[in-house]
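Example 3.2
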Amino acid sequence: MSRLIRLLALISLLLTLAMAPALAQETVPPGDGPAVVVDEGAPPPSEADWTFRFLIPTVLLVSGLVVAGVVVGYGVRVRGRYRVVR
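Structure, written as C-alpha cells:
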C-alpha cells in the first residue's frame, strides 16, 4: 500500500510539473485589446526624501570638518616637530 501511495504521489507530481507551464500561458486572440483605456495622467511631482534634504548635507559638512581637523592636526603635531637642517 505504501508503494502505491508513493507511486501515485510521484505520478501526480510529474503531471503537475508537466502541465503547469502549459496551463499558465494566457491565450489572447490577436487584435483584442482593452475595452476602455484609462489615462492615468502625469505623476505628481515628488519631493526630495528627508535623507537627501538633511542627512547628505550633514554628512558632507561633518566630513569637511574632519578633513580640516586632520590638516590642522598634521600641521601642529607632525610638521612642528621636525626642522629641516640647512
